[in-house]
Design goal:
Order of helices and strands: HEHEHEHEEHHEHEHEEHHH
Strand content: 15-25%
Structural class: alpha/beta
Distance between the termini: 45 Å
Length: 320
Amino acid sequence: MRAAGRRILALITATVLVVALSACTQRASEWGDGTAVIAGGGSTGVYFDYGSHLAAELTEMLGVRAAVEETDGSVENLLQVGGGEALLGFAQGDAAADAVAGVGVFDEPLPVRTVARLYDEYVHIVVRADSEVEGIPDLAGKTVSLGAESSGVNVIARRVLDAAGVDVASVRNPQLDLQESIRAMEESDIDGFFWVGGLPTPGIQDLASDLPVRLLPVEQEWVNAVNERYSDVYRTADFPAGTYGLTAPAPTMAVPNYLVTAESTPDAVVRDVLRTLFDARSRIAVEVPAAALLNRRQAIFTAPVDLHPGAVEYYRETRR
């Protein structure tokens, strides 16, 4: 009886394993055989970190070839997704709104749709702790990176400066990405830099551990002014005390971050992506804290950018 019991137990275990493996590798046929590219921003930012783990999960769970690629940020991500160079991309809500409307830096509307609202990003204006700069108006005449040219950081930085009454032309802007900005600050080549990202942003966290820094406040009146002039996707927020070594909360502006795809992406592929994204949320969050903020109820709020039809189907099917 014991031998028979062991054989039955082995058979059950093998069956469960086969079913589990089959579920992990099951995917829609529309994926094809190419590499699923995720446009992921700079290598020291949350986008790239999140994208790397999502690519690994898609590869593991669906058996597809997925890879994250380094970009300048939201604007380039949207252009790559809209142009068919990337399957997925991370984008700030304001840049995505401009993209579908064909305004700002976008010459014409891009055929992009949202997959999910992931988390909110925070506007960082970083200066050295011993800097004479106390607020945004003090940046006039200084050397300040407003972000890489094709980035959502560049879009927001210009809007914030304008709202605070600072002429963008009065700022010497070397147009550095995050990694370059961090290096330039360490070498005292710049007075400050803008960044927009989740908390904590790995590169800034590493910088703050070696070099004391401060974050300039973004006042509510400036947030209101930006909302009135643009897409009304911004809100006031605070950096919590302890973030990057801060001894007290610091007011700033937040903007939602979306995972986007092309309008032409097959519905079944989008459903596969969302199933993997939510199933892997806790695993990804171990390395990328922002991933823990993914919420099925909040993920659908991506106005003024429409959800992809495949995403609409997924959320309806998983409604609780």
